[in-house]
Specification:
Elements lengths: L1 E11 L2 E5 L4 H12 L9 E3 L18 H12 L3 E4 L15 E3 H4 L17 H12 L10 E4 L3 H11 L10 H10 L2 E4 L2 H10 L4 H5 L4 E3 L7 E5 L4 H13 L4 E5 L3 H15 L1 E2 L8 E2 L2 E4 L5 H12 L9 E2 L20 E3 L1 E9 L5 E5 L15 E8 L28 E5 L2 E5 L6 E5 L3 H10 L4 E4 L1 H12 L3 H4 L5 H11 L6 E3 H9 L11 H8 L2 E8 L6 E5 L6 E3 L6 E3 L5 H4 E7 L6 H5 L1 H15 L5 E12 L5 E12 L10 E8 L8 H13 L3 E7 L6 H15 L10 E6 L1 H4 L7 H6 L3 H9 L7 H13 L4 H14 L1
Parallel strand pairs: 2-3, 2-4, 4-5, 6-7, 9-10, 9-13, 13-14, 31-32, 32-33
Antiparallel strand pairs: 1-16, 1-18, 8-15, 11-12, 17-21, 18-20, 19-20, 22-29, 23-28, 24-25, 24-28, 26-27, 29-30, 30-31
Length: about 800
């Protein structure tokens, strides 16, 4: 049995509403529907257009295409379900059909009860729960709850966006009635004074009540901001809605049309919030920002700010006339905005995994207020699998929330999505357990490749690599190989034409002369002996034919048989000096010639990504040793190792799992041939954006290797026109990286390298763990290329001059 940790978090289903940015009727309806959905305030509204409007971006040169804008929002918010507010709006989303519904379908009644059809938890049970637990009791300070509506269609839309509203559709008016009966709100008509009073008093609204029982943990530090918008521009309201979903409680909406009445409030907001950042000793200030919507021209921004918002306080005035990008991608170690973490409940438990039964039952979570028999697909459980042991259990899943094929849901009953949050399970039933299939790393990668029509088998070199890692007890034990002396010593023994043995004392001295990792409990010699990489025995010279014979300890006896002449002879009791040698023999993969068929280099490469790049908390990896891949067109390509590397943030938010293919070599002068380069390039063509790693145990590449790899690296830097991602990320690893031992730190290893190593290590310490940064730097060091940024600048300048 193996032990794994499963962290389960309950949150509402996240809907993504697709709507045309000027569709006032449906936009207003979206605000009201989300008032009736638990967690509705965090559901993004994604504008969809056929032609990029002028207001969308200030840059004419970098005009974003409609399809790219849609998918950027989808990648950032990762909606569980898409709601189309118009036919065909989800056509370019890539979502599975069973998770695309229309606005009308979301509101279809079931069994004569006016409830949501298939997805999402409404507020009916929540209202009852809040009343029973809090609002039916008399308080010294009465609850301040308001129902704020507008007296014109435009103001009604604004009120619904900021405070929530209720749909007037037939048979659904009861939500408003239940809200009023339960909370007895003050009913107000929206104007500038109501808005200012609401902000000052912190009054509760219908939208706020719909988001009760949810804890929101922002994944960022955002200074408080005023968002100035135009009441008559519906896409400004969409922008505010999404800003609030990402930066809850940090954005205060201010209608441009009421700036005269709200000017004093805006100035007081800036003065009160401009203060030192708590706990910071360097004089860093919280700087409230005046953000202006995309509908307001830059020329008008300055005038509005100076007239109504600017304060007479040095350093306090800050204008932002651009809209956040909401881009989930990471660029060269720079983390962009991230959506907040929503938690209604969470549990963190250990579970036993059987060697034969891979299916694990984890406790499913549901809201306290929900009816246990309320129907299907009402909320989401987010699962994160963590393995604190050394077993090769898969904990990484390539992010695919649109139309996922791996992992498959248990018996098809749940929707299972791989997202940056973890595995999102949307249970079919409100009762029971979450059933999770636990795979080995190799099985997980193989299953994922099979979903793309790619079959795999382990190669001979792959078997050797896997046996080396298993024999040494995982990557912790592979540290015993982080020395050229150790590997050379083992290879010399393996290259002997007859027995793969070495005198006990001679072997011990060779191994002990290698550097010792201070974090390892044993040195290389003891680790190799204890793990069974070598075994002790006796080398006896036959008394009849003189042939040297090896006998392990269990086979020693007073009389032994020569394996050449087949005659028996006595164990030497007197002439031990000439006839008996106690020796260590290499066994298993360690006895293979040519550096265990490249297994040492591959094992050290995998260990590099696990311990040096991963560093236990920076990223997670799943790996498999060498495999031969057969594609649907029957093309066969072999990789010496395959990885998923998934880097994480402080809040357990995962980046996209990077697919890594590795080519591992030992000390050959011409290690990376043209054939090797061509095979790796073919992998990149078939897997857009893959990371290609060339690992060698030597410290320097030959001129011809540099020429070949440089050509591939430059090709990889280009953007593929079809997929619109970088063709490939090329990383070079040499003995400098693979033999890293001190403090498990690549920075320390590079500081002991060449001048180029040292310069880059001192200027970029933490970022070395980012794969894109590592690729950039290793290309500069080993291939003599300019930095990625310089290369792109040169291309940009050349394009401008043509």
């Amino acid at each position: 049995m193996k032990t794994i940790n499963i962290k389960t978090r309950l949150r509402p289903i996240r809907f993504g509403f697709l709507v045309k940015p000027n569709d006032k009727k449906n936009i207003s309806e979206i605000f009201k529907i989300n008032t009736c959905l638990w967690g509705g305030m965090y559901n993004p509204i994604i504008p969809v257009f056929n032609r990029t409007p002028k207001w969308w971006s200030d840059s004419e040169f970098l005009k974003e295409k409609p399809k790219d804008a849609l998918n950027r929002y989808l990648d950032f918010f990762e909606p569980d379900v898409l709601v189309e507010c118009g036919e065909g709006l989800a056509a370019h989303s890539g979502y599975a059909e069973n998770r695309i519904i229309s606005l009308d379908q979301l509101l279809i009644a079931q069994n004569d009860e006016h409830r949501w059809k298939d997805f999402g938890q409404d507020v009916y049970d929540l209202y009852q729960y809040l009343y029973d637990t809090e609002y039916k009791y008399s308080h010294r300070d009465p609850h301040d709850i308001a129902l704020i509506e507008g007296d014109t269609p435009a103001l009604d839309m604004v009120a619904s966006c900021i405070f929530g509203g209720f749909t007037s559709r037939e048979n659904y008016g009861y939500y408003k009635d239940v809200f009023k009966d339960t909370f007895s709100p003050t009913e107000l008509c929206l104007d500038a004074n109501v808005l200012a009073e609401f902000y000052s008093k912190g009054t509760s609204s219908a939208l706020g009540m719909a988001n009760s029982q949810i804890k929101c943990y922002p994944n960022h530090h955002k200074d408080p901001a005023l968002f100035v918008f135009d009441i008559n521009k519906p896409y400004d309201l969409i922008d505010y809605w999404n800003l609030r979903a990402v930066y809850p409680k940090r954005i205060v909406p201010i209608p441009k049309n009421w700036l005269d009445e709200l000017s004093e409030f805006c100035k007081q907001f800036i003065i009160q919030n401009y203060r030192p950042l708590p706990g910071n000793r360097n004089g860093v200030m919280i700087r409230p920002t005046a953000m202006f919507s995309r509908s307001i021209e830059n020329e008008e921004v300055e005038n509005l700010f100076n007239t109504y918002i600017r304060v007479e306080k040095d350093g306090a005035n800050c204008i932002q006339n651009w809209y956040p990008s909401f881009d989930a991608k990471q660029y060269k170690g720079i983390v962009r905005e991230q959506k907040p973490l929503l938690v209604a409940k969470e549990k963190d438990n250990e579970y036993l995994v059987s060697e034969t039964e891979k299916l694990t039952k984890a406790e499913a979570l549901m809201p306290e207020f929900a009816d246990s028999y309320s129907g299907n697909h009402k909320w989401a459980n987010v699962i994160q699998i963590r393995n604190w042991g050394r077993d090769a259990i898969n904990t990484v899943f390539p992010i695919d929330f649109r139309n996922p094929k791996y992992p498959t849901p248990y018996m098809g009953g749940e929707i299972t999505l791989s997202t940056t949050e973890g595995l999102v399970l949307i249970p079919r039933s409100s009762l029971g357990k979450n059933y999770i299939e636990i795979d080995s790393c190799t099985d997980a990668i193989s299953k994922w490749l099979e979903t793309q029509g790619i079959s795999t088998v382990k190669s001979d070199a792959g078997r050797a690599t896997h046996q080396i890692i298993d024999t040494l007890g995982g990557f912790w034990g592979v540290r015993a190989l982080t020395s050229k002396k150790v590997i050379d010593g083992l290879n010399k023994i393996a290259m002997k034409p007859s027995s793969k043995t070495d005198n006990v004392n001679a072997f011990k001295n060779k191994m002990n002369s290698a550097p010792v990792n201070r974090y390892s409990a044993t040195n290389s010699f003891q680790k190799l002996v204890d793990s069974g990489a070598v075994e002790i025995g006796a080398e006896l010279k036959c008394a009849h034919c003189g042939h040297p014979n090896w006998f392990d300890l269990p086979k020693l006896n007073y009389s032994v048989q020569c394996n050449l002449c087949m005659k028996h002879f006595d164990f030497p009791k007197l002439d031990t000096k000439n006839s008996l040698t106690w020796a260590y023999r290499l066994i298993g993969p360690f006895a293979l010639p040519n550096y265990a068929k490249g297994g040492y280099s591959a094992a050290l490469s995998l260990r590099f990504f696990s311990e040096i790049v991963g560093d236990f908390n920076f990223s997670k990896i799943s790996w498999t040793s060498g495999r031969e891949l057969t594609y649907p067109d029957q093309k066969k390509i072999e990789a010496d190792y395959i990885l998923w590397v998934q880097q994480t943030s402080a809040f357990d938010v995962n980046s996209q799992a990077r697919l890594v293919f590795g080519e591992a070599k030992s000390f050959a002068k011409e290690a990376f041939t043209a054939k090797d380069i061509q095979a790796m390039q073919e992998l990149a063509i078939r897997h857009h954006g893959a990371v290609l790693v060339f690992s060698t145990l030597k410290n320097k590449l030959s001129d011809r290797e540099i020429k070949r790899l440089k050509k591939l690296a430059i090709w990889g830097r280009e953007i593929d026109r079809k997929s619109r991602v970088q063709r490939a990320t090329v990383i070079i690893l040499t003995g400098v990286e693979l033999f890293t031992i001190d403090d498990l730190s690549l920075t320390d290893a590079w500081k002991k390298g060449t001048a180029k190593h040292k310069t880059l290590a001192e200027s970029h310490t933490y970022q070395l763990k980012d794969l894109d940064v590592l690729a950039d730097f290793t290309q500069q060091i080993y291939l003599g290329l300019e930095s990625y940024a310089e290369w792109w600048q040169q291309k940009f300048e050349a394009r401008r001059q043509t």
